[in-house]
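#lab-general

N.A. 3:47 PM
ok so I finally got the sequence cleaned up, no stray characters, all 424 residues accounted for. can someone with queue access submit it? mine expired

B.Y. 3:52 PM
send it over

N.A. 3:53 PM
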Amino acid sequence: MNSSYQMQGYTLHLIPTKKFKTINISLRLQSPLTKENTTLRTLLTFVLIAATNKYPTTKDLASYLDDNYGARLSTNINTKGKSQVINLHTSFVNDVYLPNQENLLKNMIELISDILFDPYVKDNAFDEEIVELKKKELKARLQMDKDDKFTYSLDKLFDYMGKDCVLGIPNTGYEDKIDEITSSVLYQYFLDCINYDKKEVYVIGDIDENIVDLFNQYLRFPDNNVIYDSSYIYENNKEEVLEVIETQDITQSKLNMGYSIDIDFNSKYHYAFTVFNAIFGGFSQSRLFKVVREENSLCYYVSSSYDAFNGIMIVNAGIEADDYEKTKSLIQQQLDDLKSGHIEDEEIDLAKMMLKNSLMKTRDEPNSIISLAYNRDIVGKKESNEEYIDKLMQVSKEDLIKVSQKVQLDTIFFLTGKEYYGNH
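B.Y. 4:20 PM
back already:
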């Protein structure tokens, strides 16, 4: 059986496995990430699954899902470097596990088609009441992100670090733009998505090739061969490190450090940097965790993460305000130590093993399997998990030293309590 099929206006990817009793369908709609559209797209994810013509209220739609043995329907939105991606996802019990032949697969494909091609629309506009309700929900979500100081401080780091590029555009949109969006403007934007977004559909479960006929019958988009950029290398254009300190009424301070690394998903050093990040701060056995947290008792938490789509590395730490300078200094020391080539073979082996185990765990989660496949498809990488692991295993100490030397501190955002006065 082929794994990918070119359908009308989208690519269908089948991932057959007998591991799950459910079938998961994920439709990904990709468009360039822009300041003008990010709020529209985010609001759209809320409105899309609220109602259809056939099920004109949220209650009607919920009842239909209940009738289909508690099928689940959700949307979310993510950025992938220069792109913003809407994910429309449904999961439902495979018919073979039901007492009667219910044909849930057909029902759910039809429902996706209804959501996209027969939405609840009046006079070329989404239902006013639904849109107003979803605006409130979106505002509440953005307020929750502000109240969560980890999320807030990370968003502020991206805001300052990515001031003149896509890194600074929030994938959840701008709160002050929500009220400007009318029902008709949102519907017109939705039609643009149907016409111009790049679309990929993933199906995972105990499935066979007959499923292709169902999709051909119920899901067709306008022809579209567009390709949008996603992964890119962030460029550091600052003369010196940008350091921003903000005070709020909080007890635990949040330290966020953004680094340019000159590497992204498609770079030849992608695999080496994945291993480097694991050694530096990616796991509980990493340098940052052991030295900064355990040996010096400076952090409530500390870790580093490699964003392969934006070509950056981030360090996050929860600390006491008074430990700000010392924590920064220790993090830099560990980086300098790695740049000098002080890397033990045991560290490298352990990092590779942790990465391999982490990847193996994703085999038990349908959403993770789909996300991994999509990340590769969106950057045009033809690679299996086994091939990926092989490349990680081939990373040498020399490769690690080489990538460590590309790491440059770009921006610091420190969110701290009112009692911090510092020397800034």
